[in-house]
């Protein structure tokens, strides 16, 4: 939310002024802002009252979104209401390695439903205060697969697919569902009912990132087709790789852009692609160790920015619209 030192019902004028400066700088630089209203973290007072499980959580979030839109809407052409609601629920309330650190097989599903309600409340608030803003939800869609070809594993796969994918996509109905849908894709992920974490390590033969995630380019094409069933225009709002080897990042970029191009050629309405991330970033529980950025950040030298070869390759694709940006043609990714 806007600031963590506020109390219930208060807004930080300093924080609002800060984000106005940020958004003005983006506009002045010719960049299009995609503003996310909730990205995992909560103010302490909101968390202390129960966070997303508080009885008035949706109403409080709606008031915050209305104020943000009223103050900053003229600088927010695109607004994302909630970033990865499934992962807020999964990581924070079932797996327990994000705040609030709960591992409860019931509460994570309840939080998922609350976050869908929060999205709809945010859509209404933004449209009321900033009708020119295009507002949408951003969902992470891993390509889920059963670890084994047996009845129990397939049934468990269907259950998790419903809770992580279908609940959110099928829930985007009605006039307050939004104007667009953000798709965030990184990996193929295997599920196993015998695993204490519900997920299994990738089988042998897959390239793994610094996060331990399995690289599977065609998964992006597949999840885009699934997301297209909502009927909403799509934007790939996150896609990238954590690696210390930029040649791997370049390969990842090429193969996933090729999968994206193939989806578009197959009729999927994709309006844009945002690579994660511009800069090496703080990756939540993992800190600064995973490096997702097209641009390196030297923490020992006054946070100097150092563009990587992949940054120039991505810039060439953006400037030309061509996938042979790195000197050789990109072919569609295999299945």
Automatic annotation (TrEMBL):
Belongs to the glycosyl hydrolase 1 family. The active site is at 238 (nucleophile). GO terms for molecular function: beta-glucosidase activity. This is beta-glucosidase. It comes from Phytohabitans rumicis. The lineage of its organism: Bacteria, Bacillati, Actinomycetota, Actinomycetes, Micromonosporales. One of its GO terms (cellular component) is cytosol. SUPFAM superfamilies: (Trans)glycosidases. Signal peptide: none annotated. Its EC number is 3.2.1.21. Pfam families: Glyco_hydro_1. PROSITE patterns: GLYCOSYL_HYDROL_F1_1. PANTHER family: GLYCOSYL HYDROLASE, LP05116P. One of its GO terms (biological process) is carbohydrate catabolic process. Keywords: Glycosidase, Hydrolase. It comes from the Bacteria.
């Amino acid at each position: 939310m806007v600031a963590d030192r506020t109390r219930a019902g208060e807004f930080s004028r300093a924080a609002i002024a800060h984000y106005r400066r940020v958004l003005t700088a983006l506009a002045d630089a010719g960049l299009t802002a995609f503003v996310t209203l909730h990205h995992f973290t909560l103010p302490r007072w909101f968390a202390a009252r129960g966070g997303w499980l508080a009885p008035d959580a949706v109403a409080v979030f709606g008031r915050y979104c209305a104020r943000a839109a009223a103050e900053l809407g003229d600088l927010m052409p695109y607004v994302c209401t909630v970033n990865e609601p499934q992962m807020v629920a999964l990581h924070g309330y079932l797996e327990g390695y994000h705040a609030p650190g709960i591992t409860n097989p019931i509460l994570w599903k309840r939080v998922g439903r609350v976050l869908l309600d929060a999205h709809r409340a945010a859509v209404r608030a933004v449209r009321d205060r900033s009708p020119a803003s295009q507002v949408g939800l951003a969902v992470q869609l891993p390509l889920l697969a059963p670890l084994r070809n047996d009845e129990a594993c397939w049934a468990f796969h269907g259950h998790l697919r419903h809770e992580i994918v279908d609940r959110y996509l099928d829930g985007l109905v009605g006039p307050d569902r939004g104007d667009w849908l953000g798709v965030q894709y990184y990996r193929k992920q295997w599920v196993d009912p015998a695993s204490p974490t519900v997920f299994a390590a990738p089988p042998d033969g897959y390239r793994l990132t610094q996060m331990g995630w399995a690289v599977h380019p065609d998964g992006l094409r597949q999840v885009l087709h699934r997301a297209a069933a909502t009927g909403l225009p799509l934007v790939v709002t996150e896609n990238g790789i954590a690696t210390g080897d930029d040649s791997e990042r370049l390969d990842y970029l090429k193969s996933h852009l090729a999968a994206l191009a193939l989806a578009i050629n197959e009729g999927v309405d994709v309006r844009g692609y945002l690579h994660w991330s511009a800069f090496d970033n703080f990756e939540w529980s993992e800190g600064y160790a995973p490096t997702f950025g097209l641009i390196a950040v030297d923490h020992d030298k006054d946070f100097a920015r150092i563009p990587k070869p992949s940054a120039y390759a991505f810039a060439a694709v953006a400037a030309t619209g061509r996938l042979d940006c790195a000197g050789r043609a990109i072919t569609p990714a295999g299945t």
